[in-house]
């Protein structure tokens, strides 16, 4: 584009071999572009890209080179055309300690081990069949939430929507991981606390990551290390106990003979394939951590933002309630998964929410294993790649009326008809695309759909007295998952 050419002219940067590097705005010594990162990096990076008219920027955050990707075309270049070269993950001290190496799926660099465990996850753990088999678990966990809301409705009390949906996502993940039998021992709450204590460290954007030399010697890194080790000990205590309980309950033996039943919990599954995949105890613990970190915050964030948008967009709420109430037979208390089939408006609402509020605004950082060229620029090896999925999905160049919450855009005849989140439409990447794309998409979407349908089917929702829709603050807090800053307190009214 013209503006990209102008930016290139302004800041022609070359590597040692004379290759043209992607444009880079002026940087400070030592800090590089770090001072330009605000509390919401996806917003700061978007502004920077617009200001410099550049959908591919090579920044320097401290000592760390970062490629920022801000258009569907550039995203396709790194996630499809050069997917293999960009399929690694950067090293971090925190994941090395907390994620056992790392030896999970999400944070481990590209290589044989990642290929093996990724295959395990997609062929045994997060398969369509297993997601279907968790249907009863989802329906029961949804009913538990509905019972809590009913109590509040009967008492005329407001509910804290984020707290409620956070505990739903947590309980569902616990149920998938450890099965039903461990409920009621307070373990779910313990895991929730552990996830919330660990998430800030895993979020990236830790200072010691920008200055690796500090991480080797500095006080800062000793603090991060000590904190990470304390957390890992807490995780160890819980996960070791769970795995040992499963081993001694004989479930493992049963599972290996019945060859991975679909209703086994995730620990049973991992125990049953541990030999085939050469898994150590640490590998298994790391993979379970991925379920906690991949599955809880994301689902809770999508649900809470969606409810907030529905409160802001009364017509959309009415349309959604009308669709659901017309499908679910009168007298049926809960929406079942069978009822969800054919609910096109519900799907469009969730898509629209994922467009405006993708929980991982910058995907998870990728890392280049070799240099490659794109649009006449050379991207070096050893660069972090941040795909600004949020910026791309809210950019007026690619979306009509991008700021507005309009699910109709995804329906037949709408401006985004046919656009989906399965990683082939590069203007819409809430789950990423390519080799590192989210393997938990079906799991996540199934729980969001069922919970949302029940929330709006069973109740009408109102703001507490004295509040109006424009009082709903949509501010975000950045982290491993972006979440709402303000609590969303709403009054449920039983129909
Ligand atoms: C609405 C819910 C969810 C959203 C929006 C979401 C989004 C994402 C995104 C954007 C990525 C990074 C893709 C990339 O790096 O290019 C990712 C990776 C991942 N997600 Fe999800 N996710 C969700 C639910 C889940 C669930 C429920 C699980 C597991 C139970 C899960 C497990 C993972 C794992 C293991 C990875 C790492 C994959 C890899 O590096 O190979 N996610 N997710």
Automatic annotation (TrEMBL):
One example GO MF annotation: iron ion binding
Major localization listed first in the record, in broad terms: membrane
Keyword entries, A-Z: Heme, Iron, Membrane, Metal-binding, Monooxygenase, Oxidoreductase, Signal, Transmembrane, Transmembrane helix
Cellular compartments per GO CC: membrane
Database matches in Gene3D superfamilies: Cytochrome P450
Binding residues for heme: 438
UniProt xrefs under PROSITE patterns: CYTOCHROME_P450
Cited Pfam families: p450
Cofactor(s) needed by this chain: heme
Compartment annotation: Membrane
Pathway of action: Secondary metabolite biosynthesis
PANTHER family: CYTOCHROME P450 FAMILY 71 PROTEIN, OS01G0543600 PROTEIN
Family, per entry: Belongs to the cytochrome P450 family.
Protein name (record): Indole-2-monooxygenase
